[in-house]
Amino acid sequence: MRRLQNVLILPHTLINMNRDEVLETDNQDQLRSFRERFVVEDEDVCYLDGNSLGRMPKRTVEEINSLLVNEWGKKMVGGWADWIDEAEQVGNLIGEAALGASAGQTLAIDTNTINIYQLAVAAIKARPGRKKILIDRANFPSDRYAIEAIAESHGMELVYIENEDPTISPQEELTLDLLGRYLDDDVALVTLQIVQYRSGVLNDYAAIEKMVRARGALMLWDCSHAVGSVDLQFDKNEIGLAAGCTYKYGNSGPGAPGWLYVSHKLQSELDVPIRGWFATKNQFAMERIFEREDGIRGFQISTPPIIGLRAVKVGFEMIKEAGMKAINEKCLKGTDLMIELFDQWLEPLGFSLATPRERSRRCGHIIITHPDGAKIARALRELKNVYPDYREPNGIRFSFSPLPTSFTELYEGFSRLRDLVASGDYKNMKVVESKVT
Ligand SMILES: Cc1ncc(COP(=O)(O)O)c(C=O)c1O
To answer: pTM of this prediction?
Structure first.
């Protein structure tokens, strides 16, 4: 294990002072001890990509090992007596820990795209006679593709809300004014993200939900970048439908199951398109006729992935213990610091900030752009041990994952970025085609 290198040669005292302040911020951080519960193989790495894939909690290794050895290994098929309801149990945990949702409305299951598809089809079937679906142009590709396919196969008109700036910018925000230009009585479904995956804009989800509901349409939220960073209040804001990933701020591991949420109010009104045996009233009676179970279980299709669910459980138990209020405040402090360092160090080097500055309009990640963004992002990893991710056409995205990340790690990462660009060392970097950015 290598120690954090003291490579930073500070050019003047003001920045020195700030570094001390950053260390003090870590000392005062009430969530500080959570970092010790994560595997940090190399202390020199500045990991600022926790909104793509969170770090691994140490307890995940123990939990999964114990599941394999003590449950699957010993009980074999007999284990199902204990595992059969785990998608609901872990769903309830996610609801309580991170969504402000009471029990019986969340299922931890399948992937985000599958959950978006299932809920979107269910929603349009629940609004017969209405012919339009709204989605924003800057939404995540997988959501757009899934919704396009639904519109095609159900003979609906897909209407794009034009909020995409090709250079990435805070214009991605879905304001009530913008939405109002598209919303009419022919809209069955609106599907948006709470936090925009590129620009990091936090949309006013409570106000949007209210507006959409008032027009008689259904609202479906992709919460992938909000869950575990924004202090979501689904019950209080009468949120109807939502889905999200767990492997970002939930730290549940690559490809771990996502979740879907259907409010108590909508559960009897909605019917998902894939009918599976886990949704039936009397599952092991193997009935001829599908009779749907009441409640959230009626939205489950298949056998729950128990190994992945255990990793989700570890991640969300940690979130529950830390509390979303404290987590959200730390996220905001992290992005406050990023913006401060951007102003001080990066703007003079030709970077632009594509995330809103106001606290009320952002949360856990920011994106900065630079004409050489692709080269810089690659050089950061390869030459400087700093992990951001890169989003076309020129955006470098940094997140502050509040449980495993320290303010010092963030500060160090940004100072290495400053030094990299100031020195021009990134210029010789070749932009290699990669399957993953
Ligand atoms: C906002 C958003 N939506 C959807 C997805 C796709 O999730 P999945 O691959 O689990 O379907 C991602 C993945 O990163 C995402 O960030």
So the answer is: 0.95
Q: For residues 397 and 298, state if they share a domain.
A: no
pLDDT tens per residue, range 287-343? 999 999 999 999 999 999 999 999 999 999 999 999 999 999 999 999 999 999 999
Q: Is residue 2 part of a domain?
A: no
Beta bridge partners of 135: 160, 191
Rounded to the nearest angstrom, the distance between the alpha carbon of 123 and the centre of ligand 1 is 20
User: Are 316 and 389 part of one and the same domain?
Assistant: no
- Residue 45 token pair: 């790495």
Verify that 139 and 269 share a domain, yes or no.
Answer: yes
In a domain, 394, yes or no: yes
- What is the best residue among 112, 221, 248 to mutate for testing ligand 1's pocket, by most ligand atoms within 8 Å of CB? 112
Candidate of 197, 205, 312 to mutate for ligand 1, largest count of ligand atoms within 8 Å of Cβ: 197
In angstroms, what is the span from residue 143 Cα to ligand 1's centroid? Answer: 8
- The number of domains in the chain is 2
Could you tell me if residue 329 is inside a domain? yes
Q: Are both 89 and 154 inside the same structural domain?
A: yes
Last residue of a domain, one of 291, 322, 353: 322
124 touches 189 (CB < 8 A): yes
Whose C-alpha lies nearest to ligand 1, atom 8? 112
The enclosing domain of 249 has a CATH number of 3.40.640.10
> Rounded distance, CA 156 to CA 125, Å?
11
Output the residue whose Cα is nearest ligand 1's atom 3: 140
SS3 labels along 289-351? CCCECCCHHHHCCCCCCHHHHHHHHHHHHHHHHHCHHHHHHHHHHHHHHHHHHHHHHHHHHCC
Which amino acids bring their CB within 6 angstroms of ligand 1? 111-113, 140, 142-143, 193, 197, 222, 224-225, 245, 258
Mean pLDDT, the chain, rounded, equals 94
Instruction: Give the domain range for residue 418.
Output: 13-56+323-428
Spacing, Cα 225 to ligand 1 middle (Å)? 9
Note whether 248 and 238 are same-domain residues.
yes
Q: CA–CA separation, 328 vs 198, rounded Å?
A: 19
Are 356 and 362 within 8 A, CB to CB?
yes
Distance 286 CA to ligand 1 centre (A): 34
Q: Are residues 248 and 330 in the same domain?
A: no
Which of 53, 113, 205 for a ligand 1 pocket mutation test, highest count of atoms within 8 Å of Cβ?
113
